[in-house]
Design goal:
Number of helices: 11
Number of strands: 16
Structural class: alpha/beta
CATH topology of the largest domain: FAD/NAD(P)-binding domain
Helix content: 25-40%
Radius of gyration: 22 Å
Number of domains: 2
Amino acid sequence: MKEITVVGAGLAGSECAWQLASRGIPVRLVEMRPQRMTPAHHTGDFAELVCSNSLRSDELTNAVGLLKEEMRRLNSLILHSADCCRVAAGGALAVDRTAFSRMITESLEKHPLVTVVREEVTEIPSGITVIASGPLSSDAIAERIAELCPDSDLHFYDAVAPIVTLESVDMENAYFASRYDKGSADYVNCPMSREEYDAFVKALVSAEEAEVHGFDDSGVFEGCMPVEVMARRGPDTLRYGPLKPVGLRNPRTGREDYAVVQLRMDNLDGTLYNMVGFQTHLKWGEQKRVFSMIPALRDADFVRYGVMHRNTYLNSPGLLDRYYRLKADPRIRFAGQMTGVEGYVESAASGLLVGIETAAELLSLPPVDFPQETAIGALGLYISQGSIGEFQPMNINFGIIRALDYRVKGKRNKNAEISRRSLAILDELKHSKEVLSLEDNH
């Protein structure tokens, strides 16, 4: 059987390669790191998480929780690795990013049907090719993509939050808790008084930013809005966003604080914590100066500062079909964030779908055609059909999953019922679609 080329070993490319190889399809997985790095990556490992270490909610009343459970049932390498490398994060699935990436890299490197090639791709390979080079694609491959997709000149910018050592956090001014006591007390909460908060916001909005070519606040994806951009929207914006104190009670006072900065565990040893919602593109010296105004972080040791980098995505509804194939040249498929799916889990899910449907095609089996009742199918239909108005990157949400045809009282109850239906449909597909019964076990 002919070898399939997957360009890029991020979340989408790694998942796609795994799904193909697990069904007996030889894969040539090409990754340019570490020979050529990007502004946001730090290692040559596959599926490196360059922003948060959280894969968000793990609950079935949340759409991303449903998407993760669908992927688990479809033998996802990304979800298996995440579950093995999870760190405490209340109701969320967060991982030790180093262990997570290493496990995925080792799983693919040792698979007998995966050939790993460490080089930069400058031309679209011949034969069936999955382009999963991500929003940080090198200039050379980005130019080739632009030639294939005249409407791909769309972009937004993404930001990465700083990481501090736990031992440097002043716990006399912080406490462990989870919002609304949901799950275990996994977050370090750093309270601020009104005076401290006002001074912090004043310093934040006037802090000096690093130069990012072509940066425009209006081009930032809402889900990764830099903290300084949020602060410019009004003095209370952060208190209703990442610094909201709602659901947290300070054990020392018994009261809700004026504002609270949360830190989330970033490694399995529990020695590193990232600043939740503090994506930023301030200069590093300014990050140290301003973020040290948070009382619990006055002497914090910042082991990694926030950075800003460009993310590009395709005008997918005009370019791709529900299998993420290029309509103008179906031998070429895309996967990952550049297709307009936004988020770690969504990117991996697109690679999973591409891998499964490509395997079905090569094995002369019927496609799965994941329906809109499933989260995986809803994403594929969203990027191929779009919505009214200009196409924008989209996280998975219940709004793009087909609604129930009967009433259920209460939002959480309704979401739970949608998830129950989706998983029942997926289980039926696993029984009826031969390509879904072919995967190997981890």
